[in-house]
Structure of Lipoprotein:
Amino acid sequence: MKKITVVLFSLVLFSCGSGDMKVPDPPKDINTVKTAIKGKTFTADKTGFFGVLTVNDKQEVSWIDPAKEPEKYAKEAAEELNGKFSLSFVNDTAVNIVSKEVTTTGTYVVDDAVGEYDKGMAGIKLRLSYVDTTMSFGFGDSSPMTMTYTYFVKGAHDKELLLQMPREINRRPLIVLLKAK
């Protein structure tokens, strides 16, 4: 009876997860991330959400398939990001960001400081700052604002970067797997 219970539990555990565990390992420290990204271009390959299961210290990931996704905002996010969002790390501080077919030049920093807008979450972060021409306060001739966006680095190595985006859909943080070109 014990063997049957163990077999059934194993089947349920591994068949319930529709997600993918194949993501880069969490970075050990800030220098791991800096070394992994320096001089490289990463392009969004998959967009998704973390699942509820954690196996062998790896959290399950549910990738969004835009062709099958019933949720409007999740589908739109995947269509907007997959193959169309990229980060080109020019040197130790400069980055070119391609989003919505527009290339923007900015700066970046990798740190683990818990700031005012980090929701109290610790971890290694990639902070991108750039002039966002779509954002300005005031009326008339107000100039565009410099915005800083924080991406939590959930996985990194020289060929892949797993980022938690500064955006949520239905209170679930959006994640993106970027691959080096």
Remarks:
- The first strand starts at residue 41 and ends at 55.
- The mean pLDDT is 84.
- The longest helix spans residues 2-16.
